[in-house]
Write a structure and sequence with these properties.
With about 120 residues, the chain is an alpha+beta fold. It has helices spanning about 35-50, 85-95, and strands at about 5-10, 15-20, 25-30, 55-60, 65-70, 75-80, 100-105. The longest helix is centred in the middle third of the chain and has 14 residues, at about 35-50. The N and C termini lie far apart (about 30 Å).
Length: about 120
């Protein structure tokens, strides 16, 4: 099952990643100062993924990626893909499984196993 994974950046800000059923990151959100803002943004984006825009780009090195646009605002950027077909498959996975994805919060870094 696909999921939204909330975590902390090295800067201390929060982000969420949409991961595929196989655990591969498809896109990463912008930074959020507060965890609850990040969580509410993930929840909102989960509800509008099927109707938002996906703008495709090509880097100067020939890699492909897309940005997720909601209400004329870029909310996330995808990972880099080697072909345009892979970009299409990534977007198709988002549209198909995004609304059913669960939200997982790993921002506390509380590990079960001690060193």
């Amino acid at each position: 099952m696909a999921s939204f994974v909330i975590s902390k950046r090295f800067s201390g800000d929060y982000k969420f990643e949409f991961t595929s059923r196989k655990g591969k990151t498809i896109f990463t959100s912008n930074a959020y100062e507060l965890r609850m803002d990040c969580e509410s943004a993930a929840e909102y984006i989960r509800t509008v993924l099927e109707s938002c825009s996906y703008v495709k780009f090509k880097t100067s090195k020939g890699k492909f990626f897309f940005r997720v646009v909601v209400d004329n605002e870029v909310v996330a950027t995808s990972r880099k893909y080697s072909t345009e077909l892979m970009v299409e498959k990534g977007i198709a996975e988002i549209v198909k499984y995004g609304s059913k994805a669960e939200i997982l919060d790993f921002s506390n870094n509380n590990f079960v196993f001690e060193d």
